[in-house]
Amino acid sequence: MELSVNPNILQISPYIPGKPVEEIQREFNLKKIIKLASNENMLPIPENVREAIKDELSQVHAYPDSDNFYLRRRLAELNGLQPEQVIVGAGSVELIHMLVRTFLKAGERVLTSEKTFSLYKIATTEFAGQAAFLEAPMDENLRFDLEAMTRLIDEKTKIIFITNPNNPTGTFVPAAAIRQFIQKIPMDRIIVLDNAYQEYFDDPADYLTGLDEIRSGKNVVVLRTFSKVYGLAGLRVGYAMARPEIISILGRVKAPFNVTRIGQRAALASLENDDYKNRSARMNRANKAKLLGQLQSLGLRVLPSQTNFLLFFPGCDVNELNLRLLKEGVIIRPTAGFGIPEAMRVTVGLEEENDFFIKKLKKVMPGK
Description:
The protein is α/β, with parallel strands linked by helices. The protein folds into 2 domains: 9-45 and 275-364, Aspartate Aminotransferase, domain 1 (Alpha-Beta Complex), CATH 3.90.1150; 47-270, Type I PLP-dependent aspartate aminotransferase-like (Major domain) (Aspartate Aminotransferase, domain 2), CATH 3.40.640.10. 38% of the residues lie in helices and 14% in strands. It is built from 13 helices and 13 strands. The chain has helices at residues 21-28, 47-56, 69-78, 91-103, 119-128, 146-152, 175-184, 211-215, 244-251, 261-270, 274-297, 318-327, 351-364; strands spanning 34-35, 86-89, 109-113, 133-136, 157-163, 190-194, 220-225, 238-241, 301-302, 309-313, 330-331, 333-334, 344-347. The strands form 3 sheets. It has a 7-stranded mixed β-sheet with strand order 2-8-7-6-5-3-4, with helices on both faces. Strands 9-10-13-12 form a 4-stranded antiparallel β-sheet, covered by helices on one side. Strands 1-11 form a two-stranded parallel sheet. Helix 2 (47-56) runs antiparallel to helix 10, helix 4 runs parallel beside helix 5 and helix 11 (274-297) runs parallel beside helix 13. The mean pLDDT is 94.
């Protein structure tokens, strides 16, 4: 029997994550594998978070707090907001879907840049079809081109996603430019600042957190995550901050019990350990600088990055190079799915992981 399917779903190009270690082990029968494909924090989580997780295991027979009360309260306190200005989701991905489902009406559009996080397109297409999604070109430095985006805004534009720093390019837009952009946008539109990599940014003075814009009553939504610098990617915890009216409406579509007990407890414990967060950021900065130099010493073009990854251009067949690396036990991320088929993205790992990657890259690069 032929199934009847929502036609929007057939327009979606599925999100393709980096291959898991287990799959590569089965396929190539390798003993040593490093995965630098998913922008994870490679440092083991701190002891206080481990203890919180262990303690919560005795309660997993019970549903979690659907309101995420304690986590929202602590996030609000740390960001100078009220708890009613915070909503917690199963990673930023759930929150992106919630934003589109909640605020995009028939005939309206989502606007973002090309060469950015593909979930904006997936969420929009699922809900409203590809015609509701619009991408502006990037500038010559592979950054969000806010002037190009401004030219595309019309009465149909409803939600605008700005990823800063951007995934997968690692590039950023200075705070002043985003402030000016926000000032030009009609008040009835929603501007989403996806700040997943905020903690890795080098110069806080040149970074727009979006919190002042929220306090001043603008329709700005800030997305943050525990998956990166806090090292909790496997627990799927993210959060959004906005005006109380926006958060209240989002709460109507939030799935009950959407964040696990362990996820909530681990996130709370993470917020009490600035040493781990700061150590992760320092390690990333040092290892990224070394890895950047190693890639450049091979004659490769590498984009400057304000994140925990680097985008580089190998100057050869990316698919062939990726297969060679996989056979050597190295998993990184080709970026064709992001609209950059000539490049690859490598996560900044521990020093020994980065060195292993460079060793294998030298081995398999054509002409090296």
